[in-house]
Description:
Blueprint: H1 4-55, E1 73-76, E2 82-85, E3 89-93, H2 104-108, H3 120-123, E4 134-135, E5 141-149, E6 152-164, E7 170-178, H4 180-232, H5 247-296, H6 303-327, E8 335-338, H7 339-348, E9 357-361, E10 368-371, H8 373-390, E11 395-402, E12 405-412, H9 433-438, H10 446-456, E13 460-465, E14 471-478
Parallel strand pairs: 9-11
Antiparallel strand pairs: 1-2, 1-7, 3-5, 4-6, 5-6, 6-7, 8-10, 11-12, 12-14, 13-14
Helix pairs in contact: 1-4, 5-6, 6-10, 7-8, 8-10
Amino acid sequence: MRSVRARAAIGATLVVAVALVAAGLAVLSVLRTNLIDQADLQAEVAAREVAGQLALDTAYADLDLDDEEDHPVQVTDEEGRVVFVSQGLRAISGTASTGVSPVPSASAGATPSPGDDDDDDDDGGDSARPARGEVSSDDPDFSDGTATVDGRQADYRFAAVEATTPAGLTLTVHAGAPLAAEQEAVNTVRGAMLTGLPLLLAVVAGVTWLVTRRALRPVEGIRSEMAAITASEDLARRVPEPGSRDEIAALARTTNETLTVLEASVERQRRFVADASHELRSPIASLRTQLEVAEAHPELLDLPGAVADTVRLQVLAADLLLLARLDAGEKPGAARLEAGALVREEVSQRTGDRIPVAVEVAEDAAYEVNGSRGQLVRVIGNLLDNAQRHAENRITVQVAADGRGVRVEVRDDGAGVPEDERERIFERFVRLDDARSRDDGGAGLGLAIARDVAARHGGTLMVHRAPEGGAAFRLWLPHAA
């Protein structure tokens, strides 16, 4: 099932159905228990009333029975023989005996009544037997059964109560309470539940469908707009953002932010390709021209110029390759390096620089960082190249601790960088006007590469005004882990 609305509606309906079924079963169980408890109480009251009369030595024929149809009574003796049944009782089950006909000895004469004093003459008075019997105070035994009274059979709840007559005879009184009310109530509630449950589930499914459809309507707008963007390849378009503050609105905002970043990335790539093509065209055209001239007139070959163009082309290709690797997310190495040693090594190899470089590094301090040796050396070299193009008489490289990291600062005494251009110079293929007049072949990639490498190493690269009046490029890298 591919529709979220359908899955949500079915899921909500199933959850509600399970909850309602469980609640309905619990309600039916509680209702049945309460009604059975009421029937137990009625049966116990009826049984104890008859047992009380028997304890008072009331004759069977004189027993006062209330509503014999609703409360059928059966009395058995110690041997389980039926000695009395209520009028109209024709069949019974669920008691100690299924008999409904009193035994002849019981029907011929009831228990001795208090007025019978045949034994008084022999015993000399009433003191020889108890004045009254007793009714058991124990909880009665309850059971389910059926009884046929006046030709109608019904279910009953029976209570069994023991009674002792004044003559010492133990009788068990079984009195029933009808379960028709309980059954009718349970059937009514069950029928209402079975009728109402499908209707309620249909309402839940419909409401869930409509609510989910309304909630997912912005998602459909986002999807359709993304499809249009994909078809048109127009990254300037944006998906609609709903006015709500829910997850869908957050999704729309995140999607637009992603489109913004993607548009900027694509635009940067386009500009990069265009600038790279432009920068490559010049040395390639110059080199081709010199080779064509040399082919026609070997004596006119400008060999130093051809070598210079080849070197420039090689450096530019290396810069473009490094930028491509950085854009692809290449992670730097994790070698443990000493920043002061890297600076000294790079400066010592620059024997042909126009201006000597002064290095300020404490001899007794260790400035260790993690990263790629080649990339960090490339950053230091690019900063020194930039200083060589702009410095007048002095270039200084200082390595020092800075908080939780190491600061490598390259300063010159040139004209410096205007404050409003200090971020722009880190863009690719950007060269300021004064730099163009002094540039001997740079393509404007050195500072962009330096900042990208610094960011990949968890550091920063900023430009400030140097005390000497020129530019101060501050490379900060975190301490080695």
